[in-house]
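Two folds, back to back.
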Amino acid sequence: MSHTYETRLKKEFELLQRLERHPNVKGIITLYYKDRVEGGAYKSILETPTSGLYPNEFKVTYKMPMYVAENQLKRDWQASFLFEVPEEILMDPNSKLGVEIEGNNGNFPEGSKPFNNHVSTGWVCTGTAWGVANQGFGIWYFIIAVGCLLNQEKFMMASEDADENRHLNADAFRFWKNVRKMQPNNKIDWPFKLMDDPVFGEPQKKKFSFGEKKSTQPSFSFGQVKHEPQVTNKFTFGQKK
């Protein structure tokens, strides 16, 4: 493993600890990692690795009220997702990254699948969330973006009733658009400015650079990914690659 990769993992870990402690997502996002030397069970992200190597295998648990069917809100909903960032993924700004549903053979348990047009029984389409996160932000940004997707934040969802927007569940899309009037499941002030948030002390400038960061406030579009320089970040969601 390269020294640059190991340095990057350390800084990613510190930011994930920062996210775990953020009051805006306390009880909503819980983070874990697997020790690269010892393996074994996942440990809380708040525990510093004893092996001296920072982790590249993570688990994130989301807990929030979630629509699992039309007019059916599961208030005790939670789900955990697993992902890994080996060097070839973390250090490549054009890499792809998805999440695996923990347990139940990689599927949501019966009655727990989010009623969301970007979700199927065994897959969450994260679109270009990682592509944006890996352009100067980090793993923490990807985790927040997936949380926004699950919470059906308007800026993560296309509003036009078209085939590509209905995506994996047309009924869920129309319920969100026509009945719920494109409102999120829960009102959450997601900490997109995590690296500059004064809650944790003095505001900090960007700690590392692995791509050009234009803005900490995301905007989302749907359709073809644009490759020209952008003032704000673009997220797209569509067919699985």
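---
second:
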Amino acid sequence: MTVTLERPVTTPTVRRCPAWCDGQHNADRDGNFFHRGPIAVAAVPDSAAGPTGDSDPAVPALTAHLVLPAGPEFDGEPAQITVDNGDLFGPYAELNLAQADAFLRDLKVFTARVQQMHDRLVELNGGRP
């Protein structure tokens, strides 16, 4: 995929997307352009969401996507995995490879613990899921 960026100060810039890019590009307020891969989402069912304070119920979610910054200055910023809570303007983390490895280890422990809770819930419900 080839993308042409309209830039107000200079002539348009053409970028060739990596094969994994989903074509949903982002740009920050400085005009830096980001290739983004498909988003991975983990969320609870909508019916389980509870209200927080005065707001409507919100589904807890975790999203992640591969990002390759490709700013106009071509500063060589490395690819990263961006992880957030599904809120474009909320907190996020930019993970390098070592940080992504640590995060994956934590997710495996988290998943194993949730599985234990699930199994206990089945027991408490008399064997019914």
